[in-house]
From TrEMBL:
Taxonomic source organism: Prauserella shujinwangii
Functional description taken from the UniProt entry: Stereospecific condensation of phosphoenolpyruvate (PEP) and D-erythrose-4-phosphate (E4P) giving rise to 3-deoxy-D-arabino-heptulosonate-7-phosphate (DAHP).
Protein name: Phospho-2-dehydro-3-deoxyheptonate aldolase
Domain DAHP synthetase I/KDSA, first and last residues per copy: 57-350
Lineage, top ranks: Bacteria, Bacillati, Actinomycetota, Actinomycetes, Pseudonocardiales
Residues in coiled coil: none
Length: 363
């Protein structure tokens, strides 16, 4: 008798073997339905198409400007995000000869352990997880911001989400926690926009270089189609991916030596030599005062002629800093202040945009 025969004898053959820990399965609207309800109009299409083309021109060195990805760590209040977008759109127009400004409109937050996972996952900020509502709010905000002529950038975290919103997104990002994920690298190979890929939270830059290389190749993988049905996707690869240096647990990595080392790694991998520096996260210790310092330092280096840095990311909102969310108590939140990472306030951000623009003019 085998050692497991006893256990097998007591097993109920009719007992369900799957969905043992899934407490409910409910309908998700289809990407096609969402796109029909919230369509891209001609103005939005122009913002997205031109925004992507301009970004690629900067990445490839045909355009001497800087890409600046700037905006809240996360969107929790679409009205405040649109208020911010109006100010940013106006300022972006003033510095358009030097900067290609893309607004961070982030709906999916990768958490270190647990926490609110963003507006798509829990739009009512109360643990009710009204995902269909979240998708509708997210798509409408992406359309509203793009309609201002301001291109948007999103982090892609859930591999299903892009079918719902990607046609409105000018620039994408893969975060530090998913840069090593094959699922996300395959996804990048399919995305129609340039995508920045971050170094790991520990500060490993090679993982982002490897991801950039993997994303440039073609892949075949399972996903969903516009009707939300399981489908096999065959991709051609994305040549417009690039590394974002975001610092790590060992400290910042925006220094000239790490930038040069990253460019050498990219060259070694046969990839274009360009990086975006994220002034927040591990490069600032999530301190907005230090974030402003990083932007100032990068502006100085760009003004002095440094070329490998093609873009800068900033976390910025209307008010400085951050506040804690208590689920179900959104009415207690202060208007325009981040509920995830601490942000620069608008006035400081406008000054930093001017500083970056002056640096580009100087070089
Ligand atoms: O930018 C966002 C955060 O740094 C990231 O989502 C991790 O956040 P957490 O460490 O607060 O979970
Ligand atoms: C989650 C983010 O950053 P990172 O992946 O670098 O932690 C972000 O930019 O919102």
């Amino acid at each position: 008798m085998s050692p497991t025969a006893g256990a097998a004898d007591t097993h109920d053959p009719l007992q369900a073997l799957d969905n043992q820990r899934t407490t409910s399965i409910s309908p998700l609207l289809s990407p096609a339905l969402l796109r029909q309800e919230h369509p891209v109009d001609a103005a939005v299409a122009k913002t997205v198409a031109h925004g992507r083309a301009d970004t690629v021109d900067i990445l490839d060195g045909r355009d001497d400007r800087l890409v600046v990805v700037v905006g809240p760590c996360s969107v929790h209040d679409p009205e405040a995000a649109l208020d911010y977008a109006r100010r940013l759109a106006e300022h972006a127009e003033r510095v358009r000869e030097q900067l290609h400004v893309v607004m961070r409109v982030y709906f999916e937050k990768p958490r270190t352990t647990l926490g609110w996972k963003g507006l798509i996952n829990d739009p009512d900020l109360d643990g009710s997880f009204a995902v269909n509502k979240g998708l509708r709010l997210a798509r409408q905000l992406l359309l509203d911001v793009s309609a201002l002529g301001l291109p948007v950038g999103c982090e892609f975290l859930d591999p299903i989400t892009p079918q719902f919103i990607a046609d409105t997104v000018t620039w994408g990002s893969i975060g530090a926690r998913t840069a090593a994920s094959q699922v996300h690298r395959q996804l990048c190979s399919a995305l129609s926009m340039p995508v920045g890929i971050k170094n790991s939270t520990e500060g490993d830059v090679q993982v982002a270089v490897d991801a950039t290389r993997a994303a440039a190749a073609s892949h075949v993988f399972a996903g969903i189609n516009a009707d939300g049905l399981a489908a096999l996707l065959t991709t051609s690869g994305n040549p417009d991916c690039h590394v974002i240096l975001r610092g790590g647990s060992a400290g910042p990595n925006h220094d000239p030596e790490t930038v040069a080392d990253t460019l050498a790694r990219l060259r070694g991998a046969g990839l274009p030599e360009r990086v975006i520096v994220d002034a927040s996260h591990g490069n600032s210790g999530k301190d907005p005062v230090r974030q402003a310092g990083v932007v100032g330092e990068i502006a100085g280096r760009i003004g002095a002629g440094e070329r490998g840095i093609v873009g800068v990311m900033m976390e910025s909102f209307l008010a400085a800093g951050r506040q804690d969310l208590t689920l179900g108590r959104r009415d207690e939140l202060e208007y325009g202040r981040s509920i995830t990472d601490a942000c620069l306030d608008w006035t400081t951000t406008a000054g930093l945009l001017d500083e970056l623009a002056a640096a580009v003019r100087a070089r």
